[in-house]
Design goal:
Layout (H helix, E strand, L loop, with lengths): L1 H26 L15 E5 L8 E5 L4 H12 L5 E2 L8 E5 L2 E5 L5 E7 L5 E7 L12
Antiparallel strand pairs: 1-2, 1-4, 3-7, 4-5, 5-6, 6-7
Length: 139
C-alpha cells in the first residue's frame, strides 16, 4: 500500500512539473522581428549614454557595419521574448517605422516594441547576453 501511495505522489508531482513547464514555454515567444524591419533602410539611433554626457542621435546607413551587426543580432535573438506591459526607457533606442529596440548597458535585458498593421503596439522583454551588443560602443 505504501508503494502505491508513493507512486501516486510521484505521478502527481510529475504532472505539476509538466504543467508549469507548459505555462513557462507558452509565455515565451518566437518573434519574427525581421517582419517588422526593412534591411534596406537605415536605423535611427538615439544614444543617451555617452561619456561626454547628453544624447546623441545618429543614423546607421545600410552600408554601415553597425547596421549589419544589428541585423545579425536581431536574427539571432528572435526567441524567448515575453510580453510586457511595463513602460521602459532605453539608454540606446534603435528604430525603424514599426520597430523599436530598447537596450540597456550594464543590464541583461532588452525590450522590443512592435507596431502591427492596425497601429497597435506590442511590448516584449528578453534576457540577452550583453557581449553580443559590444558594437554599440564602437566608434
Amino acid at each position: 500500500m505504501d508503494k502505491f501511495i508513493a507512486k501516486e505522489i510521484i505521478m502527481k508531482s510529475i504532472h505539476v512539473i509538466y504543467i508549469f513547464a507548459l505555462i513557462a514555454t507558452s509565455c515565451s515567444k518566437k518573434l519574427d522581428l525581421a517582419a517588422y524591419i526593412d534591411p534596406t533602410q537605415p536605423f535611427q539611433v538615439v544614444d543617451a549614454h555617452r561619456a561626454k554626457g547628453g544624447t546623441i542621435e545618429t543614423e546607421w546607413q545600410v552600408n554601415d557595419a553597425k547596421h549589419d551587426q544589428l541585423l545579425s543580432w536581431i536574427e539571432s535573438n528572435n526567441r524567448n521574448w515575453k510580453p510586457t506591459h511595463a513602460t521602459h526607457a532605453g539608454l540606446v533606442i534603435l528604430s525603424q517605422e514599426n520597430f523599436r529596440l530598447l537596450l540597456y548597458r550594464n543590464s541583461n535585458f532588452a525590450v522590443v516594441i512592435l507596431t502591427d498593421d492596425e497601429n497597435i503596439t506590442h511590448n516584449y522583454k528578453k534576457s540577452v547576453d550583453t557581449r553580443g551588443l559590444i558594437f554599440l560602443d564602437e566608434e
